[in-house]
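Homework help board

Subject: predicted structure for assignment chain

Our instructor gave us this sequence and asked us to write out the predicted structure in token form, then describe one feature. I got the tokens but I'm not sure how to describe them. Can anyone check?
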Amino acid sequence: MGLFKWFSRKKGDRDSPALIQGSGEFLDGKKDTLTSADIDPEGAEKYAGYERAMTLKKAGKLSEAAELLLKSCNPPSIYKGHYRELFKIWRQFNRDDLKVNRYQEVVDRVMTMIRLDKEMIQEMLRYWSIQQNRKLPLDYFDNDRNLLVGDAKALKRAAEALGQNDNVRVSADLIKRFAETKKV
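My token output:
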């Protein structure tokens, strides 16, 4: 529902599912303030989780921070920062695991990163297509991806060590994509 339609709706329409309880109380005069949690409680909850994760990350509790950030990425969301911070933590884990030859953990983690990045972009396309009331091109958010060429190289190194040719091809495709986007 557009903003103009929302303000110009009939009084009986107030009970529509699009209106959150907190915002209804504000419109009815029962509350003096309107917060972001009143308008978007799910987004406010995800942001609170993000803040907790950043506090844990600062305290050096990377595994707990990664768990919280992973929860905020399921279901997929448009909150790119959650993915970015999760991937930063996982990159550190990947560096540590590559040093001690825990290659399968690196492969699993990078493949999850690829999946999460793809889901985030699909959700951003879905959400912003609705907001802009038009179909966006599939490459519209390519600059918002959180994968780095280093992720593809880590996948390649781990997959080669394990003899996983399918994952070596995935890493080669990613590296090629990064090289092509660099030329553009």
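Reply (TA_rk): Your tokens look well-formed. For the description, you could write something like this. The two ends are 38 Å apart (CA to CA). That's the kind of observation they're looking for.
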